[in-house]
Amino acid sequence: MTKTAPISADVDVLISGGGIAGLTAAAAFGAAGFSVQCVDPTAPITERNVAGSDLRTTAFLQPAQALLDQAGLWERLAPHAAPLQVMRIVDAGGDVPEPRIVKDFNSSDISDLPFGWNLPNWLLRREMLARLAELSNVDLRLGCATTTLFTRTNEARVGLSDGSQTHARLVIAADGRNSAMRQAAGIKVHTTRYGQKALALAVTHPIPHVNVSTEIHRSGGPFTLVPLPDYDGMPSSALVWMERSARAQELFEMDETAFEAEMTDRSCALFGPLKLASRRTIWPIISQSAERLYGERLALVAEAAHVVPPIGAQGLNMSLGDMRILLDLAVATPNQLGNATMLEAYHRRRFAEVKLRVQGIDMLNRASMVEARGLRDARAMGLNALYSLGPVRKTLMQMGLGAR
Ligand SMILES: Cc1cc2nc3c(=O)[nH]c(=O)nc-3n(C[C@H](O)[C@H](O)[C@H](O)COP(=O)(O)OP(=O)(O)OC[C@H]3O[C@@H](n4cnc5c(N)ncnc54)[C@H](O)[C@@H]3O)c2cc1C
Fold first, then answer.
1. Distance in Å, CA 291 to ligand 1 centroid
2. Alpha carbons 192 and 180: distance in angstroms, whole number
3. Pairwise CA distance, residues 172 & 12, whole Å
4. Measuring CA to CA, how many Å separate 144 from each of 27, 131, 368?
């Protein structure tokens, strides 16, 4: 019996990786009229309560909305989004877990809109796949990985695990922190390991969140509750709880009742007793940045380019910043798609900004991890001083949004 040869393709843009970043890039470039192939070895899980579903949530900050809109995604996402009107920072680094300093940032101080909108990752995947199904110029190939990259000045040839080959003018590496395309191009990364892990899960609580996102600092890392729409008739939030790895693993394995008591204690009971509303997932925390954001015919975006600890909802929002610049360049001069001029411009416009954010979040994470009593007091004093000054506060809020 003869085997059918796998189909090869010629496209404007090949996207390696169909995570949230890759799917967004596929919708954005597809909606702009480019022919796109997006490749991922795993089929996205689009239901909440099945094994392996991604229970993290993404808080899309204000600047993300325009890109999602342009990609035809926002109208699908808006009905499911929980607005984030207030960001509350709490220092609870004293002898007992109770708030010592509470600082509120209200979005109305800088804008008519909320800071952002929170959405579960599994639901994002569902809506993104539905959007891609409407775009006839986007070919989504699931169950297939990129394996090799061979470039010439005028095109890239990417080998896929089904034996086919795709010729593309631009390859976008959105294939995660261990990016196969980045490695194939020989681009090095700098990695920092913190010996820390994050638990990500959903909770319900009797006291409503009133659209306030709450980040509580004590030791081991931040404990952040981000508003979600009600679940089973109860107020609900997404929790990201960062701790030293051994402690995080212990919490991950703990029986449910004991875990719920630990969570409530760590939350200073600000929302009453916390109840698990999903299974627990656990994520290693690193900080990583690529030494450059491009290779010949190749652009690195999202975690292929930079990984940060989940603080201040920066991770995917930085990734959308990458895509905004790439798309602007592609649309402004389509005849230069993927050439050296375009990719050098991309690197110039993103690299310094990415570096600054990776360093900033690294600093915040280290400050949040401190165990020593004196350092915890210094953190509380610093927090108090910083956030009490009106103009500094405003600048910080705008920077948090990536608006300056
Ligand atoms: C606990 C936690 C909470 C977070 N909360 C937020 C938040 O509120 N806001 C925010 O902005 N960010 C947040 N982040 C960060 C955010 O989740 C990540 O930035 C984002 O999920 C990474 O997306 P990605 O698409 O780059 O990578 P991934 O999700 O890792 O996707 C990479 C994809 O590439 C595929 N792939 C791998 N190898 C290949 C190959 N050879 N060929 C083709 N495909 C391949 C994989 O199968 C995968 O689907 C959080 C992170 C954590 C850990």
1. 19
2. 20
3. 11
4. 19, 20, 40
Ligand 1 and 231: CB distance under 6 A = no
How many Å from the N-terminal Cα to the C-terminal Cα in the chain? 62
93 near 379, Cβ under 8 Å? yes
Which ranges in the chain are annotated with CATH 3.30.9.10? Answer: 81-119+193-285+369-400
Split at pLDDT 50, 70, 90, the class of 385 is low
CB of 310 closer than 6 angstroms to any ligand 1 atom: yes
Answer for the pair 170, 299: CB distance below 8 angstroms, yes or no: yes
Tell whether ligand 1 has an atom less than 6 A from the beta carbon of residue 21.
Answer: yes
Opening angle at CA 286, ends 117 and 395, nearest 5? 45
Q: Which burial class, exposed, middle or buried, applies to 260 when counting CB atoms under 10 A from its CB (0-12, 13-18, 19+)?
A: middle
Closest protein CA for atom 11 of ligand 1: 316
Per the CB < 8 A criterion, the answer to whether 165 and 150 are in contact is: no
- The superfamily CATH assigns to domain 81-119+193-285+369-400 is D-Amino Acid Oxidase, subunit A, domain 2 (3.30.9.10)
For a mutational test of ligand 1's pocket, the pick from 36, 117, 237, 303, i.e. the residue with the most ligand atoms closer than 8 A to its C-beta, is 303
182-223 residue pLDDT tens? 999 999 999 999 999 999 999 999 999 998 889 898 877 889
